Amino acid sequence: MALDSRWPDVLAAGLLAASALAGLALWPRLPAEMAIHFDSGGDPDDFVARPLGVALAPALGVAGIAIARLSARADPSTDARVLGAAVLFVGAVVAYVQALVLAYNLGYAVPFSLGLTPVLVAAALLTVYALRVDGPL
């Protein structure tokens, strides 16, 4: 694969690395037990130890990128830009959600809609893009 076709991977990995570095930079201010999952009312319903809370989302993001790349081998798009957009979407969404988790655990009030709405809009835009570039199923 040509180097220029991997720029979404590099950018997505950079976003995930930045989210991991942010967690490390904020380490002293984060609680020993971090909230990582929230119910529909925005209340935390799952907690993990700080090391896992800092590392989990970036690691899942890297795994998501790998899964996207592997799945493309089984069912390739007719246009590589669609896969690139999907990879970038995964990295950006996971980094964004990690930023919200870090903010919440630092004591900032994070409205549920702030977490969900941009992700849904981005998913809709990705879907429209994929359909326009790659065509309908």
Please tell me about this protein's structure.
With 137 residues, the chain is mainly alpha-helical. The chain has one domain (3-134). Helix content is 68%, strand content 9%. It has a two-stranded antiparallel sheet. It is globular.
Q: Which secondary structure elements does this structure contain, and how are they paired or packed?
A:
Blueprint: H1 7-25, E1 33-38, E2 44-49, H2 50-74, H3 80-105, H4 112-134
Antiparallel strand pairs: 1-2
Helix pairs in contact: 1-2, 1-3, 2-3, 3-4
Brief account:
With 137 residues, the protein is mainly alpha-helical.
Number of domains: 1
> What share of the residues lie within helices?
55-70%
DSSP strand (E) fraction? 5-15%
Give the N-to-C terminal Cα separation: 25 Å
Number of strands: 2
Please describe the biggest sheet, giving its number of strands, its sense, and whether it closes into a barrel: 2 strands, antiparallel
List the strand order in the largest sheet.
1-2
Give the rounded overall mean pLDDT: 90
The secondary structure category is: mainly alpha
Global Rg: 16 Å
Q: Poorly predicted ranges (pLDDT <50, ≥5 residues)?
A: none
Strand and helix order: HEEHHH
- Total helices: the number is 4
Indicate the overall shape: globular
Characteristics of this structure?
mainly alpha; two-stranded antiparallel sheet
